[in-house]
Amino acid sequence: EVTLPDGSKATATADPDGNFSVPVSGLEEGQTVSVTAKDASNNTSTPTTATVAKADDKTAPDAPVVNPVKAGDTAVTGTAEAGSTVEVTLPDGTKATATADQDGNFSVPVSGLEEGQTVSVTAKDASNNTSAPTTATVAKADDKTAPDAPVVNPVKAGDTAVTGTAEAGSTVEVTLPDGTKATATADQDGNFSVPVSGLEEGQTVSVTAKDASNNTSTPTTATVAKADDKTAPAKPVVDTDLTGKAGTRTPIDVIAEPGTKIELFDKDGNKIGEATADDNGKATIIPTVDIPEGNVTARATDSSGNVSDVSAPMLATRGGSTETFNNGKGSDVTPTVVKPSPAVDVQAVDSSDKHMNLKARATISAAEKDASTLPATGEEASTAAVVLGGVLAAFGLTLAGKRKKED
């Protein structure tokens, strides 16, 4: 006879082997029951008391939840039934275990995991009930390496983009002077171009690159430089008259934009000298060769490489003749005549201060006697004739004097 916790009783008869089974219900852990045996003569045994123990656990835990497993990981982690033993079967068949804490978290130490392998994870409770396995595939290892800092091309005032190179496929972020940000993606060759506006000389921009794993590079800082000068200098002016200067190395003045490089060219485009215009815009160029005859021009180039139009030409000519003869222009040439002695030895000096010794004939023809003047043609080749004419004229004066004396 079993006396239940609520005082009710239930009975059954022991079989020939003494075994009995008394049907009961509603028993809970910690309660007590009392059991006695009564024979056919109604003799009752002393009671046996039993405490109701915890019921047998025949329910397996839920399959563990396994966090992503990546190549190179040193632990397989996740959650399972609190207090359960978590067992990880590794790719080579070996097993590793750990116990889930009171919150169900577990971390099973492992090593040597490679991308593409699989691991199997189970949880076993205190009643040795084992969960269904959870299988996890080992993924590619986390990329924890930040990209190199971007290489930023020079940034100039007024630029509409910040350009350069960074890790291919990375997101390039430009922090502008006002704190706003602009982004673009580096192409397969690493080139990037981030649209910007309003940049001014002296400002700074900061540029970073972020990869697909959100690793961010150290920033590259660039200072905004002066905008490119794309305006050509004004056309220079050759300021030296080159009349009579061909064949010389006369310094040539050129008026141009201050600081520009001035080059001189002959009529065939050959450079014949260069200099830099001073603060007043004047360049004095000493030719490196004799100035050729023909047009001479100048060209200016500024510090940004902008080239001016070619100047108006200045004509270089050679100097005139230094001879004192009139070259057939009709002007008289006056020789210096020394009056002949009776011995008719005559000395003459021409216009070039050349001395000449001449001898006159003692007699003259009738035509010469009657001639009152001798023409002076002025031809260069007639110098001797002019001198001789002077001599004859002087000689004629002598004869005329003698004739007058005879008369």
TrEMBL record:
It comes from the Bacteria. Keywords: Cell wall, Peptidoglycan-anchor, Secreted, Signal. The lineage of its organism: Bacteria, Bacillati, Bacillota, Bacilli, Lactobacillales. Residues 40-53, 126-139 have a biased composition (Low complexity). InterPro entries: Big_6, Ig-like_fold, LPXTG_anchor. PROSITE patterns: GRAM_POS_ANCHORING. Residues 96-105, 319-329 have a biased composition (Polar residues). This is Ig-like domain-containing protein. Residues 374-407 form the Gram-positive cocci surface proteins LPxTG domain. The keyword Signal applies. Residues 1-25, 37-170, 318-338 are annotated as: Disordered.
